[in-house]
Specification:
The protein is built from 18 helices and five strands. By secondary structure, it is mainly α. The chain folds into two domains: 169 residues, Preprotein translocase SecY subunit; 236 residues, SecY subunit domain (Preprotein translocase SecY subunit, Orthogonal Bundle). The strands form two sheets. It has a three-stranded antiparallel sheet with strand order 4-1-5. α2 packs antiparallel against α7 and α10 packs across α18. The two termini are 36 Å apart. It is found in: Cell membrane; Membrane. This is Protein translocase subunit SecY.
Length: 437
C-alpha cells in the first residue's frame, strides 16, 4: 500500500502528466454530463429500456442511447466511418496511395473520415428517431422535432469526436477509445449493485463466486491482449569511422491477437442481418420465423456457434490486412537485419507468415470463447446486464484501453527516472526492443 501511495505521488509530481490526467478527467466528465441531457421535445418518462442491438449500443454509450440524449449516437458513427476508411485503404489503390503520402495523406484521410461521419450520423439518426423514440414521448410538433433532433444528434456526435481528439492531444490515452470505455464502465457500479441485491443474503456465496469468475476472465483477457511471439532479428555490424554500429539482437513482437476487438465488431454487425432479413418474410414463411426467432436470441446455441465461427474467420481476415509479412521482411532487409537461419527476402516473409498463422489460430479460438462468454454467464444465472462484463466487446475494449493508458503513464514515470507502476513484470510494449514498429 505504501508503494502504491508513493507511485500516485510520483505521478502527480510530474507537471505534464498531472495536467494531462486532469484534462482527461475533465473531458470525460463533460461527456458523461452530456449523456444525461435529453433531446428537446422528448418526455423521458415515456422512454423504455433499449433491447437487442439497441441494448448492445446502449452498453457502449453508457445509457445515453436509451435516454434519448444529445449524445445518443455518441462516437459510434465516427468509429463506423473509421472502419470504412480502413477497409478502403486496403482495397482501393487511391486510398492506399493517399496513406503513403505521409502527414499530408493522413490529414486528407482524417478529413474524409469526418465528412463520412456526418453522413453516417444523418443515416443512423434517422433510424434512431424512428425506431427508439415512441410517438407518445414526443411533446412538440413531430416534424419540427425530427428536424431539430437530427441537427442536435449530428452536432452531438461531432462534439464527441472533438472531445476524443482533445483527449488524445492534451490528455492521456486514446481519446476515442476512452469515450467508449467510460460509457461501458459507467454501467458497472449499477450492475454490481443490482446483481448483489438480486442474489440477496442467501445468494452471497454465489455472488462471491461470480466476482471471482469475473476476475479470472479479466486476467485471461489481459493475457490474450498482451501475449506476443518474439521473433529474433540480428543486425549486421557496420563500422562508421572508429565506431561499430549494429550487431545487436532485437525482436519482432507478433501479437497473438493482432486484430484486437475488430473481429467481434464485424461479426456482431453481421449477426443482426439474419433476423432483419427473416422479418421481411415472417408472415409467409415458417422457416423465416424460425430463423428470426433463433438469431434474435443471443442465448441460442445456433446464434453462438455461427457467431464464434464468424469471429474466427474475421480474425484471420483482419490479421491478414493489418500485418504484412512482405513489408516487414523488406524493412528488415533494407536496414540490414535478418532472422538467424532464414534467408532475407521471400523466405523471411514466408517464415513470418507461417508464425502468424500458427499463433492466430489459437488466438482466434480464444477470442471466440471470450465473445460468447456473456451468453454462458447468463445461462449460469448471472443477470443479463452484469453478464456483458464477462466477455465480448465490452471487456476487450476496457482491458485494451486501461492497459494502453497504464503504458503511457508508465512511460512518463520511467522518463523522469521514477520506478514504474509494477514492481515485477512489464507492461508489454513499454521496453521491448521491436525491430519493426
Amino acid at each position: 500500500m505504501k508503494r502504491f501511495i508513493t507511485t500516485i505521488k510520483n505521478i502527480f509530481a510530474i507537471e505534464e502528466l498531472r495536467v494531462r490526467i486532469i484534462n482527461t478527467l475533465g473531458f470525460l466528465l463533460i461527456f458523461r454530463l452530456g449523456s444525461y441531457v435529453v433531446l428537446p421535445g422528448v418526455d423521458s418518462s415515456q422512454l423504455g429500456e433499449a433491447q437487442g442491438i439497441f441494448g448492445l449500443l446502449d452498453v457502449f454509450l453508457g445509457g445515453a442511447f436509451s435516454r434519448a440524449s444529445i449524445f445518443a449516437l455518441g462516437i459510434m458513427p465516427y468509429i463506423s466511418a473509421s472502419i470504412v476508411l480502413q477497409l478502403l485503404t486496403v482495397a482501393v489503390p487511391y486510398f492506399q496511395k493517399m496513406q503513403k503520402e505521409g502527414e499530408s495523406g493522413r490529414k486528407k484521410i482524417t478529413q474524409i473520415t469526418r465528412v463520412l461521419t456526418i453522413v453516417i450520423t444523418l443515416a443512423q439518426g434517422t433510424g434512431y428517431l424512428a425506431a427508439t423514440i415512441p410517438a407518445e414521448a414526443i411533446i412538440i410538433d413531430p416534424a419540427l422535432f425530427r428536424i431539430a433532433a437530427m441537427i442536435i444528434l449530428t452536432a452531438g456526435t461531432i462534439f464527441c469526436m472533438w472531445l476524443g481528439e482533445k483527449i488524445t492531444d492534451k490528455g492521456i490515452g486514446n481519446g476515442i477509445s476512452m469515450l467508449i470505455m467510460i460509457g461501458i464502465i459507467a454501467r458497472l457500479p449499477g450492475e454490481l449493485v443490482f446483481e448483489a441485491s438480486a442474489k440477496g443474503m442467501s445468494g452471497a456465496l454465489l455472488f462471491i463466486i461470480e466476482i471471482l469468475a469475473l476476475y479470472f476472465v479479466v486476467m485471461g483477457v489481459v493475457m490474450l491482449t498482451q501475449a506476443t511471439r518474439r521473433v529474433p532479428v540480428q543486425y549486421a555490424k557496420q563500422v562508421v569511422g572508429k565506431k561499430v554500429y549494429g550487431g545487436q539482437r532485437q525482436y519482432i513482437p507478433l501479437k497473438v491477437n493482432s486484430s484486437g476487438v475488430m473481429p467481434i465488431i464485424f461479426a456482431q454487425s453481421l449477426m443482426f442481418l439474419p433476423a432483419m432479413i427473416a422479418s421481411i418474410w415472417s408472415d409467409t414463411s415458417d422457416l423465416a420465423v424460425y430463423i428470426g426467432s433463433t438469431f434474435s436470441n443471443i442465448l441460442s446455441w445456433q446464434y453462438n456457434l455461427v457467431f464464434a465461427i464468424m469471429i474466427i474467420l474475421f480474425t484471420f481476415f483482419y490479421t491478414a490486412i493489418t500485418v504484412n509479412p512482405n513489408q516487414i521482411a523488406d524493412d528488415m532487409k533494407r536496414n540490414g537485419g535478418f532472422i538467424p537461419g532464414i534467408k532475407p527476402g521471400k523466405p523471411t516473409s514466408e517464415f513470418i507468415d507461417n508464425i502468424l498463422s500458427k499463433i492466430t489460430l489459437p488466438g482466434s479460438f480464444f477470442l471466440a470463447i471470450v465473445a460468447i462468454l456473456p451468453a454462458f454467464a447468463t445461462l449460469a444465472g448471472v443477470s443479463q446486464g452484469f453478464s456483458q462484463f464477462y466477455g465480448g466487446t465490452s471487456l476487450l475494449i476496457m482491458v485494451g484501453v486501461i492497459l494502453d493508458t497504464l503504458q503511457q503513464i508508465e512511460s512518463y514515470l520511467l522518463m523522469r527516472h521514477y520506478e514504474g507502476m509494477m514492481k515485477s513484470g512489464k507492461i508489454k510494449g513499454r521496453s521491448q526492443n521491436a525491430a519493426v514498429a
